[in-house]
Amino acid sequence: NSRITSATILTHCFPRPFSPPAPHRYFLCLQLRQDIASGRLPCSFVTHALLGSYTLQAELGDYDPEEHASHDLSDFQFAPTQTKELEEKVIELHKTHRGLSPAQADSQFLENAKRLSMYGVDLHHAKVL
Hints:
Elements: E1 9-10, H1 22-38, H2 45-60, H3 65-68, H4 84-94, H5 102-113, E2 124-125
Antiparallel strand pairs: 1-2
Helix pairs in contact: 1-5, 2-4, 2-5
GO biological process, one term: actomyosin structure organization
Pfam families: FERM_M
InterPro entries: Band_41_domain, FERM/acyl-CoA-bd_prot_sf, FERM_2, FERM_central, FERM_CS, FERM_domain
């Protein structure tokens, strides 16, 4: 005899192999970037850095030391608590993505984001009235 209490958490899961059509991929990336940056979709330091590097590749293109060396990354929000260390790691990884088109960078972003443990899970508190 189990009862639902106010502490019960319900989850809704989407299939992991979900792959949106190309026109919707960009909007899904934007939503996931927002969820990751706000902390709604938690991930590790390394994952924040990797996903951030794909974001830079999609938004800025190939790393160019003359153009990007002075670029202020505060225009980009990669994590809820963004540090200089994270920004340096993002730049380091961004340098390795030379040649990826924005669409390819978004695809790589989605491939890595969908491996997050909370990807596709939307938590809701419920209580019995």
